[in-house]
Amino acid sequence: MRRIPCDACRARSGSVVCDLPADVLADFRASGSVMLYRPRQVIFGEGGPASALYLVCHGAVKLYHADRFGRVHILEIAGPGTLLGELSLDEGDVVSSSAEALTEVQALYLPRDRIGAFVERHPETAMRFLAALSRELAAARHKIRELALKNAESRLAGLLLQLAGTCGDASASDLQLPHTRRALAEMIGVSTETVIRLLAALKRKGTITTDGRRVVIADADRLTRIARHDDTVASATSRAEDAQRDS
Questions:
Q1: Using H for helix, E for strand and C for coil, what is the string for 160-190?
Q2: pLDDT (tens digit, 9 = 90+) per residue, 85-135?
Q3: pTM for this one?
Q4: Hey, what domains does the chain have and what are their CATH numbers?
């Protein structure tokens, strides 16, 4: 994989460094280390020191938690421009999740001491980092709310719309899913069997068609209503199916 320089990065416009002056951007780049990861390579592991941030420059990263039974719960699929990792003032604190490259990934590794020195030199950037981390916190709270308030069908519909980038768009979208049925299940907190049944149910309702990992969103309006949990047909999904998880 070839390294992508900051000034040529397509994700720059949506990242914490979106419009930094050239000299500040050069200092930011010098404050970190460019890291390249192959698919399935671990970027950081749960329980490791909370001492660095990672700015995803290219590729997709799976952020996940593994419980004591070895079950994996996917928390987020992070794309370019996302700020990952955790920072703590206490040397003994550890990160609460793991990150693994789903594709080839380029990330800028920003250790605590160097990012702290950068912010001291450029205090105007502190709000950028605070805003980026606040967005991640808001996204985590949104997912918790969905898990608590929405049934499995609504969560799956929302996930498909998110992956397709068609939320609120009535046009059809052809989505080549990069994830297995098991991964989809881990993202919405149900069993793989439940995801298979839910995909079949959405197909019967005419909202999607499927062919292997290929999903075509045929009725984005109705799929959006199901995702918002305000489609009357969505309520037909049984609570027993919703509660069925890997045990």
A1: HHHHHCCCCCCCCEEEECCCCHHHHHHHHCC
A2: 988 877 789 998 999 998 899 999 999 999 999 999 999 888 888 888 888
A3: 0.68
A4: 6-147 (2.60.120.10), 150-243 (1.10.10.10)
